[in-house]
UniProtKB/TrEMBL annotation:
Belongs to the bacterial ribosomal protein bS20 family. Pfam families: Ribosomal_S20p (PF01649). Transmembrane segments: none annotated. The gene is rpsT. The keyword Ribonucleoprotein applies. It comes from Undibacterium oligocarboniphilum. This is Small ribosomal subunit protein bS20. Keywords: Ribonucleoprotein, Ribosomal protein, RNA-binding, rRNA-binding. NCBIfam families: S20 (TIGR00029). It comes from the Bacteria. GO terms for molecular function: small ribosomal subunit rRNA binding; structural constituent of ribosome.
């Protein structure tokens, strides 16, 4: 348990920040799932448009350092190659 006023404040801030970061990670997962769902449906045009909006979400979350930039790049690369593989 935090004993000083400073430590109590940091604990409060940590709870608030954790909730914010969790919601951001959830938005990331939702964006990735939306692209995967479009890919599974086989609609290349729809998948490409959803991918563009998802890239923006992935990049903004990486810029905020909620996920590492390399993880963001890996997600984008795998989704792009999956879209490209659609015939």
């Amino acid at each position: 348990m935090a004993n000083t006023a400073q430590a109590r404040k940091r604990a409060r801030q940590a709870v608030k920040q954790n909730a914010h970061n969790s919601s951001q990670r959830s938005a990331l997962r939702t964006a990735i799932k939306a692209v995967r769902k479009a890919i599974e449906a086989g609609d290349k045009a729809a998948a490409a448009t959803i991918f563009q909006t998802s890239v923006s979400t992935i990049d903004s979350i990486a810029d905020k350092k909620i996920i590492h930039k390399n993880k963001a790049a890996r997600h984008k690369s795998r989704l792009a190659s999956a879209i490209k593989a659609l015939a």
